[in-house]
Each structure stands twice: as structure tokens, then as C-alpha cells.
Amino acid sequence: MNENQKLFIQRNMRQLLQQGHSPPEVLEKSLSILNNKQLVLEAKTHYDRCESLTKTIVHLGVIEVDDSLLTAISNKEKESTTANASFVELLAAHETISEVFSLLKIRLSMGLSYALWLSVIATIVFSIVNYQVLPQFEEIFQSFGADLPTFTKFALSWQSSVLSPSVLGFVFVITIGYLLATLYAVPVNKLATGQSWNAKLIGRIPFIKSVVNYTHAVIWMSHLRVLQSVGMDMKEALNSLSKPPKSVSLHLPDGLDNLQVAESIGTLSDEIAYQSERIISSAEKVVTQASRKIMAVILAFVAGFIIFSIFASYLPIFQLGAVV
Q1: Is the pLDDT of residue 261 over 80?
Q2: What number is the average pLDDT over the span 112-133?
Q3: What CA–CA distance (Å, rounded) separates 225 from 90?
Q4: Which ranges of the chain does DSSP label H, i.e. alpha helix?
Q5: Nearest C-alpha neighbor of 218 from the set 261, 159, 181, 273
Q6: What does each C-alpha distance from 82 to 17, 24, 167 come to in angstroms?
Q7: Quick one: which of 294, 307, 263, 257 has its CA closest to 122?
Q8: How many CA atoms lie within 13 A of 173 on its CB side?
């Protein structure tokens, strides 16, 4: 199943549970989009065996949950008072996470798209100037027994080198194109957790690494909110979750202390929501700044080579009268 189908299933399972449908009905109706009766039967069989909607949809690959959270949620499902509440909260959290990550990917992709088109246009212009225009000036000057201006000679020799403007432009285009393709092709969860070699590779790039670190913090805070919403106190929730990622303490230096104080005064839910919004807002700022930096680098590259090409092309024109 693709990502759109997974999101459809998650949305509709949550709505059907809130409407009061039984778990088997929820599975049958929400999975109908796949048109796969065998999968529906497998889902019902798995639910009858484990009596956990969370374990069932994790088994089907609809969502991915780490083992510690899965155990905590499954235990809560066994309590009659929170049989469906924990699962509904988990689905809502995953839907929010997907929306946030998709927004971040779109904004980052927009910046990369502009950079890609600029690189393509610049590379074409540089190639035309260096392969078509400058060699003609060289032939004209040689026919009159004169030498090209030193700057133009340098441009011609640079174009013939391994790191010519055309080669550098081509490298820019390939690199940015690869980043764009990876952002579009790799699912949000795999990009955030580095579950594919493509995700691991682009996750090492500084500005993308910063975004990935923020996503880890967002995921952890969302899971904390799920456990808190189904009745766990902070101590119990922290013991159930995996260790907080470094990005939480990095982006929220006093975050955990604030949450513990908020629990003591009865405002834990609101504080978790506030801290989550802070992380998301910071992530959006990082993406915006990263896009601007990418554009600045590409524009500097394009402007530099345009100026270089203009000087290299026009110097022979200014000296052509003296040669003739």
C-alpha cells in the first residue's frame, strides 16, 4: 500500500471508532480502499488473536511504532476504560506528524526546485558561451596573428579543464536533482528515522540533518502526548517511551523540567501542546533559512559565472578593432 492509502486508512479508522463501530467493522471498512479481501481477513484474524488494533495495523504496515510505545499502547487497550482512546490518540498523533513532515518537505522541495532550474539555465548559458562564442573569437584573433586577451585565454583554458564551469554546473544539477528526487520518493517516516540508504545519505547534509533532528523531537513529543492522554503520568510515560532524543534537550533546554512542573499544577496536556508547537515552529524556521541559504549559494554561483562570461566575451570585442 502507498502512503496516501495508509493515511486514508488511519483517518477513517479514527473516525469510525469515534462513531462507535466495533474493531472488526473498523478494520473491514477502513481497509476496503485496498480492494483486498485476503488482507481484510488477515487483519481480522490477527485482531482476534491479539485483541489489539494497534498491533494489528502495525502488523499490516499501516503505521510504524517503536516497540516500547507499542507495548504501552497495547497494555492500555486491554483496559476497558481506554480500549479505543489510546488507539485513537495514536492515529491522531501520526496524522499530525505526517502533515507537519509533509509541509516541511514541500517547503524544502520548493527551495531546491528554484535552485535546480537556476542551475540548469546557468549551465546551458555557460556551455553556449564557452563552447560556441569564445572559440569563434579565438579563430578570428588567430587569423589576424593576434593574441586573445589574457582573461579570455583563462576562460578557454578553464573550460578545457576537469573542473570547468559546465562540469561544475552539471554537478550542481545532478546533486540538487538527487536531493529533490529523494525528498519526493522516500516516505516521511523513513526520511525521519533513516530507514533507507537514501535517507541516511541525505540526512548527513547539514541543513537536512537539522530538519531530521527536529522531526525526532516532534515524534517523541507526539508519543508522550499519546501516553499522557490515556492516563499515564510523566514518570510512567517516560519509562514506557524510549530515551528522549538529543534533539529534545537541544531545542527545548528546559522542556522536560517544564513538563514535570506542569504535571504538578495540572496543565501537562497544554504544556505538551505548547512545547510541540515550539518545536514545529522552529523546524519551519530552519527549513525557511535552509532554502534561503541554498538559493543564496546558487545565485552567487550563477552571478559569478555570468560576470565572468561577460568579461571573457566582451574583452575580445573591445580589442577587435585594434587587431583589424
Answers
A1: yes
A2: 78
A3: 9
A4: 3-18, 23-30, 37-50, 53-60, 67-77, 85-128, 134-143, 150-159, 165-185, 188-193, 197-202, 206-229, 234-240, 246-251, 255-264, 268-323
A5: 273
A6: 12, 17, 61
A7: 307
A8: 15
312 and 299 part of one domain? yes
Cα gap 272→259, rounded to integer Å:
7
Residues 55 and 183 in one domain: no
pLDDT of residue 81: 52
In contact, 192 and 212? CB cutoff 8 Å: yes
Domain end call among 62, 94, 126: 94
Q: Which residue, 280, 262, 274, is CA-closest to 217?
A: 280
Structure-block grid coordinates of residue 62: 499501516
CB neighbours of residue 302 within 10 Å: 20
Query: What does the pLDDT read at residue 226?
Result: 77
Host domain of residue 41: 3-94
User: What is d(CA 167, CA 290) in angstroms, rounded to the nearest whole number?
Assistant: 25
User: Is the Cβ–Cβ distance between 279 and 251 less than 8 Å?
Assistant: yes
Residues 184 and 274 in one domain: yes
* Cell numbers that stand for 59 in this block: 502488523
Enter the pTM of the model.
Answer: 0.64
Looking at the fold, whether 171 and 287 belong to one and the same domain comes out as: yes
C-alpha cell recorded at residue 113: 526546485
Q: Is the domain of 140 the same as that of 277? A: yes
Task: Write out pLDDT tens, residues 197-234.
Answer: 666 676 677 667 777 777 777 778 877 877 777 677 78
**Same domain flag for 25 and 165:** no
> Same domain for 207 and 115?
yes
Domain boundary among 59, 94, 129: 94
User: For the chain, what is the domain count?
Assistant: 2
For residues 203 and 212, is the Cβ–Cβ distance under 8 A? yes
Specify whether 269 is located in the same domain as 312: yes
DSSP 131: I
Residue-level length of the chain: 324
What the block records as the C-alpha cell of 176 is 540538487
Would you say 216 and 247 are in contact if contact means Cβ atoms under 8 Å apart?
yes
